[in-house]
């Protein structure tokens, strides 16, 4: 039986995405959704990641919930939950190719912002925090990519990497509840999503634990450099220009 290049591409992507998520607390979606979308489309990739990531990050969640600062997480989560349905509507109705280009450009834009040395020097007032949360929720509903806006917000304010990572786990836990509900209502949990979840889950799990172990010895500087490379690689490889790599 010939090896399915699309499935092999998705399997390797899930492994790398898991390493990234386990190490940084974010980035799994930045890699998984755009690259798996190249093979199966965003309407399959995004719900598949939601199921895989929700189930496999549970062991990491309890310690993170104890370490995160809820006064920082809660306002962002409120803004995100309100905006999630709009993102889900875009996922269900936008042309997949247009959505993929939008995801790639989003990643490149955030990378440019972070690498430029930008820092959020203003106060984290409630309107600003809710707005950032809304952007994150919209992107999360559309492609499970709620992390970039929040990461830029927290890293831009000089937060230590350990706190950013813990906050991200807490934030994602709340936003996932909203996204999962919206996906279910929208009928996005299909048989194809279930099949891909079963096939890619083991690779993502291996990556998660490898990434978590690597984080224990990482400095803040290493964390930032890794985050930059994650965003750059995902944005470039997710461009539809590279579809030929997987025979699509």
Automatic annotation (TrEMBL):
Keywords: Cell membrane, Membrane, Transmembrane, Transmembrane helix, Transport. The keyword Hydrolase does not apply. It is found in: Cell membrane. The keyword Glycosyltransferase does not apply. It comes from Ancylobacter rudongensis. The chain crosses the membrane at residues 46-66, 73-92, 98-118, 130-156, 168-189, 196-215, 227-246. It is a multi-pass membrane protein. Belongs to the 4-toluene sulfonate uptake permease (TSUP) (TC 2.A.102) family. It comes from the Bacteria. This is Probable membrane transporter protein. One of its GO terms (cellular component) is plasma membrane. Coiled coil: none annotated.
